[in-house]
Amino acid sequence: MKKITSLAVVVLSVILIAGCQNASFEKTKDGLVYKIYRSKDTTAVREGSVMKVHVIQKINDSVLFDSHQNVPGYIPVGGVQRPYDPSELFTKLRLNDSLVTILMMDTFIKQNPRLLQQFKNGDRYIVTFKVLHVYKQGENYMADQEKDQEAQRIKDEAQAKEDLAGQAKEMEKYFSDKHITAQKTPLGAYVVINEPGTGAQVDSGKFVTVKYTGKHFGTDSVFQASSFTTQIQGPRPSVKGFEDGLKMFKSGGKGTIYIPGALGYGRNPQPGSPFKPNEALTFEVEIEKVDDKQPEPQALVKPQANTKVDSAQRKK
User: Is the pTM of this model over 0.85?
Assistant: First the structure.
């Protein structure tokens, strides 16, 4: 795995230095620059097949995504092909081939000017594909995909457990230094209860309306303040530590939840989010309501007519 990644980085660096002028690179009719590194295998990628691939996405020298750190992708081949897109090259590939594609961000910025907030004209968007397996049309690949995902889940859980142990020591030192008395939740978040509340207990399956202020643990700067209603113990809560902390309160309760990064957004927060990998978070919370059922959306209240004015106008 590491050898593949290193090779891809070296290849891409050479491409950038050469300025895409190397004669071994080709162009599609849409102007997409590419090169295929051939294997000795003869198993061809055809319309209707599915490729199992490792993918690396880069902007210039910066890696945006590397599937070697996650699970391989499964890409159906064929159907509607978009112009200036690597998919138009997939049927040129064979098993174990590597494809390097270079796209200029100028084209995408013209289509979506908002991209200028993240990228600039002249940036190169580089995507490499390594073909790991080719499933013929109609061949079932779902079992392999689920196996990959389960293996990654087990790996992620083991890594999160290791990360959490180290983060817990850091947070407990912080509490000691600041003379903060915090209770540890079953999963490993920390809660300071200012008011426990006197209403219904927050528990699994309950619908909780919570007002919160989210802060970066390290700087205490606010990244969001709002209120929302959520069902506790959803199938996959995005922030495990947040739900686990809420369970320490009853309706009307107030306090602070401290969440280690491993119980927050983990090592891979969503691109564009304000969070760093494994960043610890702080939430000041107020439990406004706890319900057994999802609350009905509040209907808009129509303004009442002024009957005295209406009567006077009718008399006129």
Answer: no
